[in-house]
Write a structure and sequence with these properties.
Oligomer: single chain
CATH architecture of the largest domain: 3-Layer(aba) Sandwich
Strand order of the largest sheet: 3-2-1-4-6-5
Number of strands: 19
Largest sheet: 6 strands, mixed
CATH class of the largest domain: Alpha Beta
Length: 465
Amino acid sequence: MELDLSDVMLAQLLKTNQRYQMFQEGEGIVVGVSGGPDSLALLHALISLRPCLQLRLVAVHVHHGLRGEAADADAAFVQQFCLNHEVPFYLFEADIGAMAISEGTSFEMEGRRFRYESFEQVAQEEGCSKIAVAQNLNDQCETVLMRLFRGAGLKGLGGILPVRDGRIIRPLIEVSRVVIEAYCDRWGLEPRQDHTNAETDYERNRIRLEVIPYLEANFNPGLAETLVRTASLLRDEEACLERVAQEAYEAVRVPEVRVFDGAHGISLTGFSKFEPALKRRLIRCLAREVSGGVLTDFNYSHTEAVLELASDLEGSKALSLGSLEAQRVYNTLWMVEAGHMADVNVSADWEIQVEEISRAQWDARRGDSDGIAVDLDRVEGQLFIRHRAPGDRFKPFGMQESKKLKRFMIDEKIPEAQRHKIPLICDENRIIWVYGYRMSEEVRVGPATERIGWLTLRRQEQTVF
């Protein structure tokens, strides 16, 4: 098959690839192929690029078990096409209807999940770095409209990502359906047609068959291109604002040494200075950190509820957010996974590390929040870790008199529910460090200090509470 760079679809595919750096010379690509016009044109175009770019292609077809003989014919068609063009072929079959009912999800969601799991499995087995799927410019237009009708922020209105996670690529995302169909006609591809695409039972089909033609006829003949261009601008805006939000989040987040039992927090002093748009992003940054980097069920109503909680200055209040919980205590907004407030067993989870250092080394470490410098000759006996106990007193650094530990924690605005969980580093007679907050005046390094010890507290193993 000859490579024709004058072909409109192929030229746009190459332009899109250059813009988004989707695939490089010599890469292995798994191609999802249903047998319809879009995926067949994509596979055919990549086959035409295979010799000059040394691409290694693998095709995957997923039989959803929903369309009987028509689906069987689709699978056979794709398999034969791959055989004719010397492309390795994988077939996955599933009863998506039964799986969706079992999982309590829609056919569309379950089908998508199974498809991408299948693609990932083959990518790992074949050592392919990319997975190519065939959404096109019109699919992008439909997606933007669907999200607009449902309600979405910048991220949602940015539509389908051309590249997701550096691995899922969509080389036809800037190619219209008309151009794809012309490509199929030119090369005599004769793709399969899914009759369910003509049914208006599904929201996307209604938008494609009814809403978009109406808008094009009455408002903007170039609606698809306009919406896709707008989505591209919004993705750029989203990326920029997300970087700004992450920088702001780092400025207001509670230091790691004050994080309790998997909870993370932000200072409301800094938070209150930002505009509402940035506040919402900071709340999502906080929720994302608590959730391990992925937000699945944290929605607009959750964000607004936390925003209201953070703005309420009366007392301490808590909020249930489905899989997360939020609480404002004093001037800190805390968030944690629901039900993850178990106590820390300090003796099992932490260990004290002591390093004798020189004054020069101490000077270099001033301001380091990971540890404290103590006069080793003023430490009495062995060091150990415990929780607070009734009657505890503590002489905070810089003070001439001791005070009740309870009063110290109140003054530091430590949440009451967390006070008994804070590790206390003690010698045989006193508290010398309330971890994450203040060391004791009684072991401070002075001009006459001869031996300086650098104390740090480390988890013996990383445990998420």
